[in-house]
């Protein structure tokens, strides 16, 4: 079975981050509407703005983080001890 590509990891990170961001945006948006009122846009637009901005922001950073995390997964072809010279006392 082949490993997922970097693009696949980017998409998965964006999807997971966007989903978590939507949930967090719903919680904070509900709190803000209950505390300060919906403003001139109304309830639905205000809640949508909180959810979309939170989802987009968190999804962006999560996708970048998942790509950065996957960059160091190359396996070494030789042991570390053969690549690093070791000084010994004689």
From TrEMBL:
GO terms for biological process: protein import into mitochondrial matrix; protein insertion into mitochondrial inner membrane. Keywords: Membrane, Transmembrane, Transmembrane helix. The chain crosses the membrane at residues 12-36, 48-68. It is found in: Membrane. Its main location: membrane. GO terms for cellular component: TIM23 mitochondrial import inner membrane translocase complex. Pfam families: Romo1. Belongs to the MGR2 family. This is Subunit of TIM23 translocase complex. The lineage of its organism: Eukaryota, Fungi, Fungi incertae sedis, Zoopagomycota, Kickxellomycotina.
């Amino acid at each position: 079975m082949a490993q997922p590509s970097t693009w696949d990891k980017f998409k998965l990170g964006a999807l997971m981050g966007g989903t978590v961001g939507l949930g967090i945006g719903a919680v904070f948006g509900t709190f803000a509407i209950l505390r300060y009122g919906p403003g001139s846009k109304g309830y639905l637009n205000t809640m949508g703005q909180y959810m979309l901005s939170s989802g987009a922001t968190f999804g962006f950073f999560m996708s970048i983080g998942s790509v950065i995390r996957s960059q160091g997964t190359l396996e070494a072809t030789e042991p570390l001890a053969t690549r690093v010279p070791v000084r010994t006392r004689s």
